[in-house]
Specification:
Distance between the termini: 169 Å
Shape: globular
Strand content: 35-45%
Low-confidence stretches: 19-30, 35-43, 45-56, 59-102
Order of helices and strands: HHHHEEEEEEEEEEEEE
Amino acid sequence: MAAARPHPPEHRSTRRPNPGALAGQGPHPDRPPESPRAATAKPQAPTGATPWPGPIGSAGLALGLASLTLLSWAPQAPALPAASPAKAPDQPASNRGASDRDGGYGFWQIGTSSCSRNLAGSPPSSCQQVQLDQQTEGLLTVRFIAPGAERDSLNQLIVVGLLEPNSQPLACQQGRCQPAGPLSTVVSTVSERSFNGRGLAQGLPKAWLATGSCRFEGRSLRCEATAPGGERWQGNARF
């Protein structure tokens, strides 16, 4: 019986095995081994948290705060600048006369030395003041103002008419007016109004379409008007 052939002695490596290789996670054979620094495990972000893309310096912190500020700010529509008042162009000399003739807008109110007027269907009664009101170009409102039945109350007879072509409108400045000369109107409407002692209107105003005229000259005023239904009014005042 032939003797057994002895096996060559087993060669043992003196290199310590790589723990990663034992776990099947060793380095790729074609890739050089990592340096000790590269092999150091990198810190992982906690589960469910989004890792920062990089270290936060002062610039990154400022940018983050600015972004939060923008997100929390509710944008508002920019305020429009106030429109500057348009400057009226200078009028040619040929048109200034018409503008001066308008006389501006406002009223003239004066006590009377004698005054009477009647309301619809009523006899004449005394009045205390007269007001000429110019709020629209070419239109004049005449008010005969009288005390009412209650204390501090009053009533008004209001006659509205268009200025006749040869009439001078009131000369007004800052809402205060003065007659600039004789004037006449063609009556278009008549109304009656009453006010209590606090200046509040009592009831609805009564109004009629009417025809007639008013004439102011010197220190006297006279108005006459008639409605289609037969109502008649007459007012006379001296100043």
